[in-house]
Amino acid sequence: MPKPVTQDLRVIIGGGGEMGVRTAELLSDRGHDVVIVESDPDRCNELSEKYVATIIEGDASRPEKLRQAQPERSDVVAALTDDETTNFAICMAAQRMSDARTVMRINETPDELYEEFVDGLVFPERLGARAATNEIEVSGVRTIEDIGGNVEVVEVEVADDAPVAGKRLDEVRLPRGSLIIVDYHGNRLGGPDTLLEAGHRYVLAVESNVADEVMNLFRG
Predict the structure, then answer these.
(1) What is the reported pLDDT for 138?
(2) Domain 8-121: homologous superfamily in CATH
(3) pLDDT at residue 125 above 80?
(4) How many other C-beta atoms lie within 10 A of the C-beta of residue 218?
(5) Segment 193-220 mean pLDDT
(6) Please, which pLDDT band fits residue 145 given cuts at 50, 70 and 90?
(7) What is the CATH number of domain 126-217?
């Protein structure tokens, strides 16, 4: 299993649709260098005004266009268009050109074929950009449900050097807007005596404005 990132990444995103752009915004906010490859000229002009990422006009599934984004200098290539076949082609092209990690958006139940050939899958669609961001960063965080609005449910693994590691829940001051739902056994709700053990995973509900603060507590 890949290790969580400990430094800034260079990420190529194939597809400048809503999911691709939101993922780029989240990655950019976290200090990563992002390049978006988008085939629609009008969309490219619109994205250029947002100053979220470097924009390259073209079809990322075409090797000559993907090569312009320099995958050999990148850490991750994330194929996030709304077409599964295109996304697979982008990942295959990236693997031929570089050692970059490949992340692919799929629209149906995960297929073993895809799991064999790409490094990470983003599914289902409704989990959206934050799930893609977590997969790109290999963050030890898995988005389970996007409730809508400002709240999502995530599964988080406690890192060895995390501030909460080895502590009971009543010894930790979680930010307002976050809640541990289930302990790692999955057979009881989180309570004051819930022990947060390194290497174990917990299910939390978090509001988006405190998500990064919560992740820092659990991931270090």
Answers:
(1) 59
(2) NAD(P)-binding Rossmann-like Domain (3.40.50.720)
(3) no
(4) 25
(5) 85
(6) low
(7) 3.30.70.1450
